[in-house]
Amino acid sequence: MAGVTEQTTRVPLADLSPAELEVFLDRQRAAYQSLLDRGLRLDLTRGKPSEAQLDLADRLLTLPTTRTDADGVDVRNYGGLAGIRQIREIFGELLQVAPEQVVAGGNSSLTMMHDCLTQLLLHGAPGSPRPWVREERVRFVCPVPGYDRHFAMLAHHGIEMVTVPMREDGPDAGVVAALVRDDPSVKGMWIVPTYANPVGAVCSQEVAAALASMPAAAPDFRIFWDNAYAFHHLTEQEAKSADILTLAAVAGHPDRPLVFASTSKITYAGAGVAFLAASADNVAWYLSHQQFASIGPDKVNQLRHAEFFGSAQGVREHMAGHRAILAPKFAAVQAALSAELDGLGVATWTKPTGGYFVSVDVLDGTASRVVALAKAAGIVLTPAGAAFPHGHDPHDRNIRLAPSFPVLDDVQTAMTGVATCIALAAAEHLQARHQTERSTPEDASLES
Amino acid sequence: MAGVTEQTTRVPLADLSPAELEVFLDRQRAAYQSLLDRGLRLDLTRGKPSEAQLDLADRLLTLPTTRTDADGVDVRNYGGLAGIRQIREIFGELLQVAPEQVVAGGNSSLTMMHDCLTQLLLHGAPGSPRPWVREERVRFVCPVPGYDRHFAMLAHHGIEMVTVPMREDGPDAGVVAALVRDDPSVKGMWIVPTYANPVGAVCSQEVAAALASMPAAAPDFRIFWDNAYAFHHLTEQEAKSADILTLAAVAGHPDRPLVFASTSKITYAGAGVAFLAASADNVAWYLSHQQFASIGPDKVNQLRHAEFFGSAQGVREHMAGHRAILAPKFAAVQAALSAELDGLGVATWTKPTGGYFVSVDVLDGTASRVVALAKAAGIVLTPAGAAFPHGHDPHDRNIRLAPSFPVLDDVQTAMTGVATCIALAAAEHLQARHQTERSTPEDASLES
């Protein structure tokens, strides 16, 4: 295969002599030209389910078979701001919370997050000194790499973002605690606790407990706990989400977490049901504002989903179908990256056991170049830096790969192509460094 | 029938002697006791479609038959923030506007109104001196009687309401123009232009043109044009909504109107599709904010509706089915109120040719008593004053009747009961006045 170096003979690119690097670079350029010649048109930008995944839920198209929910309410008519009981029961069980602490909403959990944020901005919460929009400044703790839409929402509303490193067991709780303890302008934090976007990390019980119990200077500090991938396992080692609501209640901060989930990546990405789970007081707070914005959610779609799943176990079983489709694609990503890049010392990447993404760290300063090279070859990736506030990756290092949408063959093709781009960008970068060193020997000597 | 006075012999209650009034009152009390004895449980509080109306749309439950829209987009997946083209075309034609000027949203036009309002509060519009939340005060012109949810939304966000009288051809445009011309704190106004809630008025072309062209001190003055009942005719004399967007564009204020509509009272009240129609700049403004709150609306439900209707003509034809169900109920309201109250001089009421409500003005100071009497008899009406800001009717005079939801027999029963309550409350009120006059003869003589 073009561009593949025998793994056994690979030497880290940084250790090659200028002449050896020149040879490598020529081969990568040839491989890249072959890629260009294929005229690909592949889109790996977003964590979208594939057509085959959507098909798994097509029974929805002839549901519901009934017109009334378990309480005898006609789902076709107005009302029921908190959503129908049946679907709240199913997702209450899955989210480890009583149905009364679950609100079933429309088709978008992002909308529910945004609703919570605008309520806090315009009105605050019980215990807020004032509406957030009346504060001098509002800051959020943002684990990075993270979800671009989370950061874009904050930026849009003028909220400052303070980044903390994301680790394998969740955000660095010590760093978070230090930020939150003394600064009342730190009003909240984002977290994708399970199979995080994009790094795949699972927030451990210990980290969750630390976040739930840490002292906060802001009396209305909120954790936006976006559990988008709670049930989205890729292996038999199924991660169990930390029960943040119980942990927070036990720690004396019952209103701290706002938990979000949806069926967007369970049934239909565009026509699922979204959920907010929170303390009873937070649910009352949310509804006390939403009553001015809505007479009720789409209960027909909620009943459609309740009939489709039948139970919490029905959701779990349904997810096995997704895993069967997704796992080979994620395996293909690993295989392609390993085949092309192992031993070169130009990239590391995650091996997620769930979720929708593989996060790649390439040679510092080359992520943008990789994305541009891939785009020119017809492989569209999430923009470099997208996983950081304001789209700015300080090291220009991180790339988010989203292999869910294309069919398996295309994932293999795309990932081999991406690996070619990574190696080419790295070689270009190292060659440029060699040339800089040659042209400024005095600087080089000063450094040594 | 108990409580019915022969129409030919009726004398206005105010003209009865104290003794005659006492006789009338006794008869009304007896009629009311009979009403109590029936143990009714009827709810006429809200403008909800009946089960029979909802049934008209039940073909929706097995739609859509396809998974892609006319542009080949898989409606089940993410994306398409403005909604699918097919449904925008159908409602663009109905709302007299290009599809590009229509956004198809979720299940609630109230939500789209609230979204526009919160965008204006938090960010303002192009041309706003500052976000509305940074203004000293923000005021809205509110035609009364009007829609309680409109007023509640404003009150919730601390926006002051200035009432103007609603007339048969819409709000008093002269009064509105005077309020808007010199006061930059007057940022907007509500209007239900067609078959207004609750008075049934239809905003004339002349009034609409005046509202579209009047000078406004606020550069970002907005008309929230809630055309909820645009196609909801009760007779063959179908009102045509004024084309506010064209009128405003011609008058040089293209961004002034924000037009809202939905299928809530066309298909399913809780599971329809809502629409925003506006200038191209306003559509861009709306989407530029909504992109942070949503990845897209429920396109499956939009395609379901597009297939169900087929065309704009399909919507018009579907509305004939609603008319067939609703017209007899509205006729029953007229018949019952006339039978019980004609000639008594204690109430006037509207005879709407469309929409969902009959607005009754009872004797000043008795509306609350009527609603309380009805409630005690198991007939739940919209609270007195609901059609006014903060629920305060300065004359305690207006009652909104919503006959759509109960079956025809129940409407007849309820309306006869309401009429009994109206006459009883009026007689009580007049008797109390007689007694006051007797106990304070010196005041009475001073007045004469």
UniProtKB/TrEMBL annotation, chains A, B:
It comes from the Bacteria. One of its GO terms (molecular function) is L-aspartate:2-oxoglutarate aminotransferase activity. Pfam families: Asp_aminotransf (PF12897). This is Aminotransferase MSMEG_6286/MSMEI_6121. The lineage of its organism: Bacteria, Bacillati, Actinomycetota, Actinomycetes, Micrococcales.
